[in-house]
């Protein structure tokens, strides 16, 4: 592929969660035009088979390549841990992925116990198993599947009794185990940080990988001479295949943004 610095950065997620990554990328790389794909119609990916996650990741990639993207950011832990190896071997374009930050957490922890909240698809993936096997073996990882959380976020129910109940159920056992770091292994979960803090207080360190992904995107674009040298004058486009209300709410205050609701 003959990439040029003027082409957009493509970003996809199973839904609106990857906008937490988009915000980091947009703030670090304001010169870049971005195209975001929110596959909310098929969310959540976390309970689907590896094969299905792979198929959806391919479909999302093809969509972004048709929009002429110079790099694809897989802003979804579930898609990264299940599909990025295949995507990298199938397309020439560079891919940036996101994985739960258990390595930094394993270095930071004093209690030698870290908690991770992620989807079933991420926690059961080969890549997650490989990454976990590489950290300090004295550090205990307490895994918790965040079942139901993505659905509530996608349907604008962050501040609902159901969300409070699920978070209590998932986090209290970690507190009892004295974890001192909590890794957010799903790009939807940063939107839960205020709620999580209400339960765990300030003593527990919450770690997510959003900023690191933005830095990695910049590094790769720099290495490939693909960073846009001029301020972006084009719209940042968000494609969503379900109701756009939550996305509108999340992007409030951002200018130069166009939300396109359509089937894909
Ligand atoms: N944002 C996705 C992730 O990071 C959510 C997965 C899902 O749709 O279940 O894993």
From TrEMBL:
Binding-site residues for substrate, renumbered to this chain: 13-14, 45-46, 77-78, 187-188
**Catalyses which reaction?**
L-glutamate = D-glutamate
Which key words are in the record?
Cell shape, Cell wall biogenesis/degradation, Isomerase, Peptidoglycan synthesis
Q: Where is the active site?
A: 76 (proton donor/acceptor), 186 (proton donor/acceptor)
The record ties this protein, via InterPro entries, to: Asp/Glu/hydantoin_racemase, Asp/Glu_race, Asp/Glu_racemase_AS_1, Asp/Glu_racemase_AS_2, Glu_race
| Pathway participation | Cell wall biogenesis; peptidoglycan biosynthesis
**Looking at its record, which EC class is this enzyme?**
isomerase
Which Pfam families does the entry link to? Asp_Glu_race
**The enzyme's E.C. designation:** 5.1.1.3
Cite the GO molecular-function annotations of the record: glutamate racemase activity
The entry assigns this protein to a family as follows: Belongs to the aspartate/glutamate racemases family.
Q: What does this protein do?
A: Provides the (R)-glutamate required for cell wall biosynthesis.
In terms of HAMAP family, this protein maps to:
Glu_racemase
The protein's name? Glutamate racemase
Q: Which organism is it from?
A: Tenacibaculum platacis
The taxonomic lineage of its organism, from the top, reads: Bacteria, Pseudomonadati, Bacteroidota, Flavobacteriia, Flavobacteriales
Gene name of this polypeptide: murI
